[in-house]
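Bug #2210: token dump truncated for Triosephosphate isomerase?
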Amino acid sequence: MRTKIVAGNWKMHKNAEETEDLLNDLIDKLPNDVEARIIVAPTFTNLSSAVEHLQFTNIGVAAQNMHQAEAGAFTGEISANMLKSIGVDIVILGHSERRAYFHETDALLAEKVNTALKHEMEVIFCFGEELKERQSQQHFNVVENQLKDALFHLEKNAWKNIILAYEPVWAIGTGETASPEQAQEMHQFIRRTIETKFGREIADEVSILYGGSVKPENAKEIFSQPDVDGGLIGGAALKATDFAAIVEGLA
Ligand code: PEP
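Reproduced locally. Full output below:
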């Protein structure tokens, strides 16, 4: 059985005190009876306190990014070793905002994935097409190439530490959501692409999350699609009631 996952990407929101407040609120409000992994990704400065705060809960903590090098003269950057040293062993890589504003390419992301895996971290790998690519019917090609360029070099046994997050760029932070049918169509395509390269077992086991304006009102319908194994949530992850209601959508 594939693991169901709901992950919240807090982006550059919440200072130290606000982070504690939101974590307390989540501890109060998240349902206990939904079988799913819950992960939150606060900003770098609050990762350490989040790990400490959540140590007796089943909520995991992820970083939103990481540098590919082990260490060195990379001012402002954070290494895998630094994350591991504070108890963070999950990292989001390839978010569309990193791709768009920080020019991250799939070749670079392949390096980051390698470094994360070398440090026995789990990777939530984000990818997805832009609006113009969907409008010109290029979306399947784009997604296939992102997977090939960033992940097809992996050994089969690396896949136990990979979580995929399909996030159509046109649906992120826009209020525009892929329809459940569009999400299912793409998730099925992604699973088949993985199967072609790595075989049925790996394709069946990998969790594929959907991201892009998931809200309490649409979560259940999207999550009920057979190839959708949960969600990566942005805006709605910043309010505990909304995030908890989205998690309920997996029930
Ligand atoms: C995201 O940033 O990964 C995301 C899915 O954002 P939102 O839910 O706000 O569209």
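Output looks complete on our side. Strands lie at 5-9, 37-41, 59-63, 90-93, 122-127, 162-166, 208-211, 230-233. Marking as cannot-reproduce; reopen if the truncation happens again.
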